Amino acid sequence: MLPCCIIMAIVFVSYWTLESKLEAADDWVLEKLHLIAFFKGGFEDMEKWQFYYGKETFNGPETIKHKRKAWILYLIVVFIGLIPWLYKANAALKIFGAGMIMPGGGFFAMGIVWAGILSLVIFGISLIAWWGTGNQVALNVVWALEAIIAFLVGQNFSGDLNILPVVILPAIYFLIGRITTFIYARLCFKTQRHINEVMPEKLAKLDADATPTPKLEDIELSDDALAAQAYIFDQAFAPYGEFRGFTNIEQFSVDGVRYQINSMLNSLQMVQCHYTPNYHGPNTEAQRKLIELFQHKKVWSYWEWEEAWGNLSRNADPIPKRGNVMLTGFFLLNLTMYMRNTGDMRYEKRGSISFRKNEDEVFNHSAHTIAESIVGNWEAGGYTVFPCEPNFLYSLCNWKAIQSMVSYDKLFGTTYWDDHKEKVLVKYRDELLAPNGTPTIFKSTRTGWCPPPITATYADVATYMAFLSACPEWTKAYWAYHRDKFLVTDKDGNKVLKPGLPFDHGNFTMSQLDNYSGLMIMASEQGDMELAERCREKLFEKGNYTVNGEGLMHWKCSNEANAQVLMGLAGFKDAWRTALVDGPIKESFEGPVLESVDYTKVWVAKAISLDGKSLTLVLKNALDRFAGNYELGIERLVPGQMYEIKETGTQFAADPAGRARLIVPLNGRKKMTIAPVA
């Protein structure tokens, strides 16, 4: 037993030694911390990029605390598992003790290597379930069952037992993990040093090269953007529960239909904010249909399972007091943007959001109760940032919660985000950011364990877009530094698009289309129209998309990536941030609106009131064969006022309810300006 004790002592000492070594930046970085406004000037300057790339430690204090607790617990289990060996118990008890030390340990102790390896594989599958769904029951049950099965097999075992492999294998695993983490931490601090050196130059170049934000009077949706939007309309107006056109694999991970609905609404709402704030009717109804679809049991019932196997709770309410930021953080943003775009405040009423489990159990909510869930989690202590899957923190989901609260405060005049900003962002930086600015994909709250942050195009897109609402300077710094890895100059001096690993997170296929759509959004948001155009060209290469008989355009990628395409095609500098933070211009809430039109045949490229009195429309036939006369329903006119279509001189009067019905010929793209007659 002496060799076993020595091995465990080496692992224990090595862990704590390397833990302390990797926690601090090297002297060079610490000397440069005078650059970081946060540590000198207070929190009011924290949106500077220096804060983002100025982290002093690799792990945050909460992570360190939980990692040490997990280590102590594991060492106690190891000690208990060694007791039968220390006191020379019977073979079966020794085998059970070995099974406590590591999954399949009992089989390795008996020398049945194949059974030990199989046990590790099965345990690995349970780990994946733990990471992806928060299923802690499976993890512990598998480990316990493997120890019990080995114990039962060992009842009649008469061979020699050997505990050394059972101790050495975990020791090797933990030492390799600590060494690789130590190396990664050093590289992070080295990268941080480089970023701080080159950032001023990169930021200056980003500003100099950016295409300015266009004026609202100068923009309208392209034919391609209209065709992409029409595809989303078609899905929204499908029979309830049909989920027509959705990717439907499973509902626990990133391909879940909830994320597809979130993205579809994000795109429609950004487009409505800038291009068609005065197009209600089908446009607004499509959003309501998607919000209604989000309440379908298929979308949210995953939470009942995750609560059961992650928190040992029977609470099926998807708006819980703890966790599920992957629903609350995303969905609240959709609700608040809908209300800000349209002025329709229906979702602030209790019961306007209803999650029905069965005839007897219904969870009634509103935008307010969802916001309360987010704030309650922030105030619960510990990590402050809070879990998606039970006891797993995800970086992106927590930023979605931040976006939602920024939008919520703007809508309702509250100060939830300002009140919690300092605590949330400091905890996010400390617990979920590496020193080089790369976000942790996910982290176990109970063990502090997380995989090394992986840089992938989707992760970059998500991170970039997430920072926009509360910390635009973080976004700017992130794009300034990472942009050049996407558009590189080859040996012949040609610029080549490098989108990264060809993987579509929305359907788990090997495709670059997800990357192209995401990069197009990132680039256009910073006014980098050169890179955005390169991505658009790739999306429209032969074979990447189809157009059906109704003119609807669909790309051969996941449904979520298709929704992203619309946002990319309609994007320009600060388009998403402005839609999220500011909403439509105030004049749009005062002027006339297009309330009804045959959306299947007439596409609306622009509908906006720039002065609060007139209405500018740009209409287009979905297909050439749909040319003809169409009825437009115009509302929110001044009752009895005479109006004129300026392009044709046609005049009409608003009825006593402020409405009018117009018959207009349409053959191709047509601009109409409806204004009151002086």
Description:
With 678 residues, the protein is of the alpha+beta class. It is 52% helix and 11% strand. A hairpin with a 6-residue loop joins strand 10 (602-608) and strand 11. The longest helix is centred in the N-terminal third of the chain and has 46 residues, at 164-209. The N and C termini lie far apart (99 Å).
Short description:
This protein has 678 residues and is an alpha+beta fold. The chain is built from 25 helices and 16 strands.
Question: What descriptors fit this protein?
Answer:
three-stranded antiparallel beta sheet; five-stranded antiparallel beta sheet; alpha+beta; 25 helices; about 675 residues; about 50% helix; elongated
Detail the poorly predicted runs. Answer: 20-51
Q: How would you sum up the global shape?
A: elongated
How would you describe the oligomerization state of the chains in this entry?
single chain
- The Cα radius of gyration reads 29 Å
Distance between the termini: 99 Å
Structural class label = alpha+beta
Beta content comes to: 5-15%
Helix percentage range: 40-55%
Number of strands: 16
Question: Main sheet, how many strands, which sense, barrel?
Answer: 5 strands, antiparallel
**Integer average pLDDT:** 88
Strand order of the largest sheet: 10-11-16-13-14
Number of helical segments with 4 or more residues: 25
